[in-house]
Amino acid sequence: MAQYNFEGEIQNINERQLEFINSVIEKQGFKDSKVTFNAVGSAGDNYMANVKRIFVEGENGNLSIIVKIAPASEHLRENFNSELLFSNECFMYAKVLPKFLQLQKQAGVPEEDQIKFPKCYGSLDEAPNEIILLEDVKAKGYTMQDRFIPLTDYVVKSVLKSLAVWHSLSYVLKQKEPETFNYFKDNLIDLLSIIAKKKDNPAIDFIAHIEKMAIGVLTGYPEYQNIIRDKVTGALEKGAKMQKSEDGNRFSVIQHGDAWTNNIMFRFQGDTLMEAMLIDYQLSRNASPVSDLMYFLFNCTHHNARVEYFYEWLDYYHSELDNSLSNYGIKANYAYPRDQLDADMKRYGKLTLGNTVVTTSMMGLKPEEASKVKEQMDSADLSNVSAVNNMDNATIIDYQKKLYWSLREL
């Protein structure tokens, strides 16, 4: 450690990772600079990585970097396939995102309409030392919304526009460079399919326990208890089957995979929202666009807003898909017809239901509750890990309401 001028929260960062961080910083022109490490966010913001913000002080300027560090725990790595998750994200930064941006630049898309993502300063795809160093986009004025507050209509539309542009570039790639798209598709890992196939997987026990607890939370609503029963655990197998069907589907895209509030950055000018930026690509894969849309809308918006705006949001998404594709002379009604989107919404309903039971149980935890769950997840036996058991009464009531309305809608 003495060879580095590092200070702050460097616990849980091993020597190989510190060495890599130092080499990346030096490549950015900061040799022998003071580097301060600070934790980012709070418990519940990120379950699958240790995230730090490092501030580099140099003679000719400063640099702020976000560092994503793979968990060191063998239990966490094994239970949640950390190696594959980090490999996915490294591949997205190294191959997919630069290609998407290249397509836009070649088509003359104005800079303000180009896909936005953090610059990757370097990544180490070397188990068990995986690490990714990213541009700190807060320095450019991007902020994160409060994960406990549902997104409003105009914010939702900003995210839907980003997803539409993101999805459109897969259709462009399929038409212009199909071999490149297939290369991307074949190299991105579908985590849920791997979990479903793996025998004696603690992650399956974890999901089964969430289902059991969700049924308990819905005491007083027996009709909804019956709807949930076997839907959560069954979502893994169903998702794997649907994923297989998407492999040769002409409408599939490279999806983001985890579009919820904490994985979206927003840039405002005063009170005006300028743009949304999707971050965190660990779960990116080849899938239906609807998978991204359903995940985002049911995890990040309120029931009342969905009642009022849901179909308007779908229309808006499809119009923005068409706008982006028009840069390449492609019509959305050819690439992904509106009636196909509607059909896919119905096809993904049951899968979304199962997934929503799990995601809402984790995303709604207060920091002190999430901290307990994260500690429990570091175990060879996940059968008794429960988000619900760690919730206070207010959180349980909120979880019950979210489940109730999601079940009514789906």
UniProtKB/TrEMBL annotation:
Residues 132-327 form the CHK kinase-like domain. Pfam families: EcKL. SMART domains: CHK. Coiled coil: none annotated. It comes from the Eukaryota. PANTHER family: PROTEIN KINASE-LIKE DOMAIN-CONTAINING (PTHR11012:SF30). This is CHK kinase-like domain-containing protein.
